[in-house]
């Protein structure tokens, strides 16, 4: 672990005022939910450790020590005994580790491609014998040795990805899909060498390296998809202010990294800046854009005593705040942790092929060993017995089983891509086919996501436009956009949290809240501005977020598929109720924070519901990550798009029922493929045991089964959207 000795680690334990300590480490080598559980349980069992939380997506292990206790060196030794390398956590090192994995896969893929292409160059002439153009034994043997010279090192080097995974699985006394793949590749090479040394007629060096090449394509694409998904939480945290303006005792401002802010520090936030940490407002008034927290575009007026959340945008006035939490404990950080937890839960998803492999692997391998031992015992000799055992493994190679789901997923994702729906992983389709409850965010999904002026009085809009053009407020911009280009008011003064005042054609006028214009207006639950000249009548400008024209049709289509529908929104109850009524949704919740949304999704999951979450804002990212499946429109922020399983570029809510229909059709095709694979193995394996299939016929049969599975998957291209 770097250049530090274990005794030096104590200096890197940060302790709070109560003496509790925390150490952050970068753990390498963890790949699955089982690894995560082993690491957390192993570290938490150490004396002086109160908790150990491992983030599978970033590789960061946070160890919490009890007051005045804790031995960092003991933690390091425990991790090493568990089989994992660890070092002090460094975000740059974590990203470098991800880059290294991708580079290793890309290198292995390139080597396998080189080996497959060049080994085939020597193998193709030997196939000429199938057409009556037999090579002499000496020439055929030379071709096999040349093929071995190219294919063997390429297959062994490129196959290390599968060999390491298979070995790790076997050490846990389990068998994943990489176990039969690894044994099949190694045994194919061994049999090929045996046949070549004994002047046999058939060798399969090209098949071994080609199998590795094809499997590495899927592994590399899966890595790229996971890498993109991991960036969701980082995208969210990147929106926090990196620097905060801290006030000293004399009131002077000093820029400091946001990570150095402590509870109780006084901070200054200028208009246009984001709130750096959760804090309480001491002095100043302003309008705050809480879109990151609530997802709603309407601003909120704040004053002394109000609590503000990290990430909120200060729109108009200078504010003095008192920090109430560190940056790592802020609302944005909490949302990011929820997103990471959701990503970890989804990483534990066990695909159907791996479940089948748990039963398939031991049966096939026991059968192959029994064939070898039984054949030798019956007097066939070790060479013939080995060929029969190899035929059993080759004819039952899990290629068709491994293709059963991916072939369908590739076809289904291509179908959805042509419809403007991007699927980020095959597992997403599996989960999407299982959903039984759909949760929509309101703003930006069921509605257009921006305030639209609905007051249609041209004369009023024309009068208010000069003041609106002088303001950066979203509602004022909507008025200015409707009015178009024109003059701007003079001597404009913006009153933070209230509105703007200025001179229009020699008369003083105001545009802003009702109270700013002296209007006694109760809470209407609607978004509005008021305009009026000094000493004259006041006029109301109303705004609303327009419902998308396809929203009601999408809800009806989802109900036809047997799904229940609900709305989660951070907006006020009035607007949410109006949208719910317009699209035909009976169940809705308003005023929800991001953490409340994620909690509500978790509660539905605890009830046994499989939730599809559809959202577009930063406030939806945690819920998107924790849902059984998730979708985001193409207009969504980066963090939400990265957290979602599917992205529909058009923003049309009808993408949801279409994607579900295709996912359900894909599930049917995948189950058909599994059924065919089971039937094929039930026939082919006994034939190989009885010696009715030699390794060459076994390879042909294995390839044929893979072709049938692929052709069945291609049916998805024509029927997916009709189901």
Overview of this protein structure:
The protein is α+β, with helices and mostly antiparallel strands. The chain folds into 5 domains: 84 residues, Alpha-Beta Plaits (2-Layer Sandwich); 145 residues; 85 residues, Calcium-transporting ATPase, cytoplasmic transduction domain A, CATH 2.70.150; 145 residues, Rossmann fold (3-Layer(aba) Sandwich); 93 residues, 3-Layer(aba) Sandwich (Calcium-transporting ATPase, cytoplasmic domain N), CATH 3.40.1110. Helix content is 50%, strand content 17%. It is built from 25 helices and 27 strands. The strands form 5 sheets. A 7-stranded mixed beta sheet has the order 15-27-26-25-16-23-24, sandwiched between helices. β18 and β19 form a beta hairpin. α4 packs antiparallel against α6, α5 crosses α6 and α23 packs antiparallel against α24. The longest helix is centred in the N-terminal third of the chain and has 37 residues. The protein is elongated, with a radius of gyration of 32 Å.
């Amino acid at each position: 672990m770097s250049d530090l000795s274990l005794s030096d680690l104590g200096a890197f334990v940060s302790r709070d005022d109560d003496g509790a300590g925390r150490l952050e480490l970068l753990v390498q080598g963890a790949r699955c939910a089982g690894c995560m559980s082993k690491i957390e349980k192993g570290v938490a069992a150490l004396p002086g450790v109160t908790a150990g939380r491992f983030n599978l997506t970033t590789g960061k292990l946070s160890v919490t020590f009890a007051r005045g206790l804790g031995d960092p060196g003991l933690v390091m030794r425990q991790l090493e005994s568990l089989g994992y390398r660890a070092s002090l956590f460094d975000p740059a090192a974590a990203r470098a580790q991800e880059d290294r994995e991708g580079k290793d896969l890309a290198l292995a893929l390139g080597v396998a491609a080189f080996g497959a292409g060049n080994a085939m160059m020597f193998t193709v002439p030997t196939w000429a014998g199938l057409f009556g153009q037999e090579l002499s034994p000496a020439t055929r043997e030379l071709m096999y040795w040349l093929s071995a010279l190219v294919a063997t090192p390429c297959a062994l080097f490129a196959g290390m990805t599968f060999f390491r995974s298979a070995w790790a699985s076997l050490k846990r006394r389990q068998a994943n899909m990489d176990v039969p793949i690894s044994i099949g590749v190694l045994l194919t090479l061994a049999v090929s060498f045996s046949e070549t040394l004994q002047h046999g007629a058939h060798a399969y060096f090209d098949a071994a390296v080609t199998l590795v090449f094809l499997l590495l394509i899927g592994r590399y694409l899966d890595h790229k998809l996971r890498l993109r998904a991991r960036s969701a939480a980082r995208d969210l945290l990147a929106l926090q202010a990196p620097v905060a303006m801290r006030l000293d005792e004399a009131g002077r401002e000093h820029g400091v990294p946001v990570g150095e802010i402590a509870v109780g520090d006084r901070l200054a936030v200028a208009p246009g800046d984001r709130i750096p940490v959760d804090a309480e407002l001491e002095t100043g008034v302003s309008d705050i854009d809480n879109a990151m927290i609530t997802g709603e575009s309407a601003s909120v007026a704040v004053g002394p005593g109000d609590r503000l959340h990290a990430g909120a945008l200060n729109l108009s006035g200078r504010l003095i705040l008192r920090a109430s939490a560190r940056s790592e404990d802020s609302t944005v950080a909490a949302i990011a942790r929820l997103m990471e937890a959701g990503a970890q839960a989804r990483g534990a998803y066990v695909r159907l092929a791996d479940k089948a492999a748990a039963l398939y692997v031991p049966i096939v391998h026991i059968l192959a060993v029994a064939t070898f031992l039984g054949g030798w015992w019956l007097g066939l000799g070790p060479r013939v017995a080995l060929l029969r055992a190899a035929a059993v493994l080759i004819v039952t190679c899990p290629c068709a089983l491994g293709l059963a789901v991916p072939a369908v997923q590739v076809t289904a994702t291509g179908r959805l891509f042509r419809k403007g729906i991007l699927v980020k992983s095959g597992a997403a389709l599996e989960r999407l086919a299982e959903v039984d409850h759909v949760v929509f965010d309101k703003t930006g999904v069921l509605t257009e996501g921006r305030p639209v002026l609905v007051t249609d009085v041209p004369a009023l809009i024309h009068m208010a436009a000069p003041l609106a053009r002088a303001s950066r407020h979203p509602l004022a911009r909507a008025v200015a956009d409707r009015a178009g280009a024109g003059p701007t008011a003079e001597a404009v003064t913006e009153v933070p949290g209230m509105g703007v005042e200025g001179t229009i054609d020699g008369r003083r006028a105001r545009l802003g809240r009702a109270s700013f214009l002296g209007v006694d207006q109760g809470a209407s639950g609607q978004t509005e501005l008021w305009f009026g000249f000094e000493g004259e009548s006041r006029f109301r400008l109303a705004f609303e977020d327009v419902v998308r024209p396809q929203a009601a049709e999408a809800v009806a289509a989802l109900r036809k598929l047997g799904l229940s529908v609900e709305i989660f929104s951070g907006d006020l109850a009035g607007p949410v109720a109006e949208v719910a009524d317009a699209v035909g949704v009976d169940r809705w919740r308003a005023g929800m924070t991001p953490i409340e949304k994620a909690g509500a999704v978790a509660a539905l999951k605890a009830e046994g519901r499989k939730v599809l979450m559809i959202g577009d804002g930063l406030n939806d990212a945690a819920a998107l990550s924790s849902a059984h499946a998730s979708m985001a429109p193409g207009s969504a922020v980066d963090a939400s798009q990265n957290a979602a399983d599917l992205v529909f570029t058009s923003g049309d809510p009808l993408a949801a029922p279409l994607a579900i229909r295709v996912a359900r059709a894909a599930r049917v095709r995948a189950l058909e493929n599994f059924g065919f694979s089971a039937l094929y193995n039930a026939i082919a394996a006994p034939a190989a045991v009885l010696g009715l299939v030699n390794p060459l016929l076994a390879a042909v049969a294995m390839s044929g089964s893979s072709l049938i599975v692929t052709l069945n998957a291609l049916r998805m291209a024509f029927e997916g959207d009709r189901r």
